[in-house]
Task: inverse folding
């Protein structure tokens, strides 16, 4: 297969950014988009990245090589039966993989499914936030159970991303609970734990406060869907997170400095192990 | 009072950075240091910031205008009786204020105490981490109950810091639990909640993971003392933090997306309120 025609389904932040990067870096591709939101369609047209921006999937032709579902997880599952047959390959970019893979395996006949997940995003949603460099240096995760063709891996590399393969959807979702979904909740809990006026905290806060609480500004809609779709792993993570907080509290209540040290050293050891793995990539 | 002679007690990261900045920006000052650690003394001498680096407080003369206790909170309390009489003003830079203020009010006679707290630090401890720009743009907190003379506020501004006054030690310590001490524990708990190999998480982690868990690499010794010295407020913060995590978990267990939305929106509202206060300083 050689990729020639690509359809981006959903011209939001991810879809718009993919469109921008593909039109500039792979100009031989014909890239179309489809979005049901008239404002998004107008903004997406303004990016000058798409050959055509369709208003509905049904209007688009059925001879694409690749369709990318760049919509939230619920919408992606909903659209799968309708995108079937529009393209040889159908790739999603959702933050949770198990419900997507289950739907792909059930629904897609006549097209091949490529579950994927680029670790990229930013606070500003929609095509106005689109950025050609959004994927630069980021991981783009695929599953060993659904390996993409070489052409799709190459496309992802041209977007600047690093191809990472994990064993399966279950492994992906568990890792996401630990590397992303739980992390976002930690940030939100750190904000919700305060009882003083946020302005009084801001007056004296240093970089630690701003870095750790930054994610509390994330778009709620995305997170409601993501946490719901990965609830089993997120719930298990939250139990362990609460237990860690209780351990610190119990040690402080007992005035047990030795136990506080053990907890701090264990966290430090793990963080440094993660950092070492990151730096030796 | 005009500041002419300054003694930095403890030539670590904070003391070394103060020495560097003062020697370069206020060259009319005579700045000495004292440190009991021979390696720190040698490294501090290498900074070329101090006129003299004493090996013990008792060796230093007793005619300083200002002595700065740049040591951890337990050491500062321990040193207060011995620094009394060495300088007209004695300022500490510790991260917790109530035990310092209690000790200053009890011990310091013949010198005047200035409890203070610069919101600055970094992972590398000791004089080798010293950085003239460490305080640039950071808050330097004083207490209304122990207002410093204009000369000390001016010195702090010359270091690049922003003078902030809070009502008293109690208010300071409560704010610190919310803006810093609790925040560090949130970062540590986010690391401790993971059950996968840190290297497996690092492979797919995005900026969210690295930002939120960054503080888990902080020096344990400092945090054991700080958390212990502010335990009452930190314990109360941890209770609220655990409650926030339980609220998220309960909502996910019930599949209650509306409640998840309420929690996310409340965190977002508070974070944005803090951000607005920060940007209108």
Result:
């Amino acid at each position: 297969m050689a990729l020639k025609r690509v359809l981006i389904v959903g011209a939001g932040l991810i879809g718009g950014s993919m469109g921008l990067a593909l039109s500039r870096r792979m100009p031989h591709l014909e890239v179309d988009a489809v979005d049901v939101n008239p404002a998004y369609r107008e903004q997406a047209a303004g990016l000058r990245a798409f050959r055509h921006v369709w208003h509905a999937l049904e209007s688009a032709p059925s001879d694409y090589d690749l369709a990318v579902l760049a919509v939230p997880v619920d919408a992606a599952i909903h659209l799968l039966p309708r995108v079937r047959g529009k393209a040889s390959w159908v790739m999603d970019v959702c933050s949770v993989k198990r419900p997507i893979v289950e739907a792909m395996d059930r629904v897609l006949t006549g097209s091949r499914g490529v579950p994927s997940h680029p670790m990229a995003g930013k606070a500003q949603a929609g095509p106005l936030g689109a950025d050609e460099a959004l994927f630069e240096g980021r991981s783009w995760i695929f599953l060993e159970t659904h390996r993409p063709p070489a052409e799709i891996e190459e496309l992802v590399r041209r977007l600047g991303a690093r191809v990472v393969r994990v064993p399966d959807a279950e492994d992906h979702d568990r890792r996401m609970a630990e590397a992303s979904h739980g992390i976002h909740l930690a940030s939100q809990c750190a904000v919700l734990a305060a009882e003083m006026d946020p302005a009084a905290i801001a007056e004296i806060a240093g970089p630690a406060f701003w870095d750790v609480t930054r994610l509390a500004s994330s778009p709620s809609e995305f997170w409601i869907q993501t946490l719901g779709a990965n609830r089993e792993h997120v719930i298990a993570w939250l139990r362990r997170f609460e237990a860690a907080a209780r351990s610190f509290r119990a040690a402080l209540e007992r005035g047990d400095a030795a136990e506080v040290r053990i907890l701090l050293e264990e966290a430090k050891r793990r963080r440094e192990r993660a950092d070492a793995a990151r730096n030796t990539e």
Remarks:
- The longest strand of chain A covers residues 64-69.
